[in-house]
């Protein structure tokens, strides 16, 4: 099925087409959400992304690639979650309340993903390294070095100028390389 | 790592060089880099399947 027919099938609420779309994009979107969303909310966020895709597909006019449009939705949902956490941290403390409150943002390191997945290297070391990059740096690495998107697509998804994408990614890769070397993993 | 090696490694990441054009250090670094980021961004298939079932039960948001 070519792209045009596939999009048409999605617009016609073809269940099979949605299943194909989900199987292809859900793991990729999961990785993006992991960058922004607390582990216990990833499930809800993933569902929200697909509901937005399903509800918005009829308004998709094909001005960008379908994949770009989907990635943009995922990044926007992720950023919305992330912004809501910042607001929680900024919320003034209620000194009269007896309820214990947790004002800290839960780090990604509390996720329950397989700790032994990296064979010989402790998963905590991976988290410690990756969490020294900022969210934008991690996103650029994910989009380019895992998902293999072009610089133009990344610029469209992130709303950054092409030159900025290139320079930020260059800096992020060098930073990650330095962290790997400093951790004596090589 | 010297500047020449670093450039070689960056060129490899951008597809400008092939793996067999890298020296041993750059090969190791590239391998480690990809393993690390793939592990970090890996997804939990349980969650992905759970959401799929939820969406299917809602007939994909109908």
Please provide a written account of the structure.
The complex is a heterodimer of chains A (186) and B (62). Chain A is globular and about 55 Å long. Chain A has 2 domains: 1-105, Rna Polymerase Sigma Factor, Chain: A, CATH 1.10.1740.10; 114-186, Arc Repressor Mutant, subunit A (Orthogonal Bundle), CATH 1.10.10.10. Chain A has helices spanning 3-11, 15-34, 42-56, 66-90, 123-130, 135-146, 151-158, 162-182. Chain A is an all-alpha fold. By secondary structure, chain B is mostly helical. Chain B has one domain. In chain B, 19% of the residues are buried. Classes of the chains: A mainly alpha (186), B mainly alpha (62). The interface between A and B is large, with 43 and 34 residues. Chain A: Pfam families: Sigma70_r2, Sigma70_r4_2. Chain A: Residues 124-176 form the RNA polymerase sigma factor 70 region 4 type domain. Chain A: Residues 21-86 form the RNA polymerase sigma-70 region domain. Chain A: GO terms for molecular function: DNA binding; sigma factor activity.
List the helices and strands and how they pair.
The complex is a heterodimer of chains A (186) and B (62).
Chain A: H1 3-11, H2 15-34, H3 42-56, H4 66-90, H5 123-130, H6 135-146, H7 151-158, H8 162-182
Chain B: H1 3-13, H2 24-40, H3 45-57
Helix pairs in contact in B: 1-2
Short key terms for the protein model shown above:
heterodimer; A: 186 residues; mainly alpha; Rna Polymerase Sigma Factor, Chain: A; Arc Repressor Mutant, subunit A; globular; B: 62 residues; 3 helices; rod-shaped; RNA_pol_sigma-70-like (chain A); transcription regulation (chain A); RNA polymerase sigma factor RpoE (chain A); RNA_pol_sigma_r3/r4-like (chain A)
């Amino acid at each position: 099925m070519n792209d045009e027919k596939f999009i048409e099938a999605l617009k016609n609420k073809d269940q099979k087409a949605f299943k194909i779309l989900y199987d292809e994009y859900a793991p990729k979107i999961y990785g993006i959400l992991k960058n922004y969303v607390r582990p216990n909310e990833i499930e809800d966020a993933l569902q929200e992304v697909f509901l937005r895709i399903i509800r918005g597909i009829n308004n998709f006019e094909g001005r960008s690639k379908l994949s770009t449009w989907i990635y943009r939705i995922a990044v926007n949902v992720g950023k919305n979650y992330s912004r809501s956490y910042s607001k929680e941290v900024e919320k003034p403390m209620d000194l009269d309340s007896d309820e214990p409150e947790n004002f800290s943002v839960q780090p990604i390191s509390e996720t329950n993903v397989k700790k032994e997945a990296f064979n010989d290297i402790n998963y905590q070391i991976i988290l410690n390294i990756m969490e020294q990059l900022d969210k934008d740096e991690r996103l650029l690495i994910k989009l380019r070095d895992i998902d293999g998107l072009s610089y133009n697509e990344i610029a469209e998804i992130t709303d950054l100028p092409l030159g900025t994408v290139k320079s930020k990614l260059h800096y992020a890769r060098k930073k990650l390389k330095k962290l790997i070397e400093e951790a004596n993993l090589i | 790592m010297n500047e020449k090696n670093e450039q070689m490694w960056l060129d490899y990441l951008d597809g400008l060089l092939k793996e067999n054009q890298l020296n041993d250090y750059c090969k190791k670094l590239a391998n480690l880099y990809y393993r690390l980021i793939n592990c970090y961004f890996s997804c939990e298939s349980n969650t992905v399947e759970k959401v799929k079932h939820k969406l299917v039960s809602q007939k994909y948001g109908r």
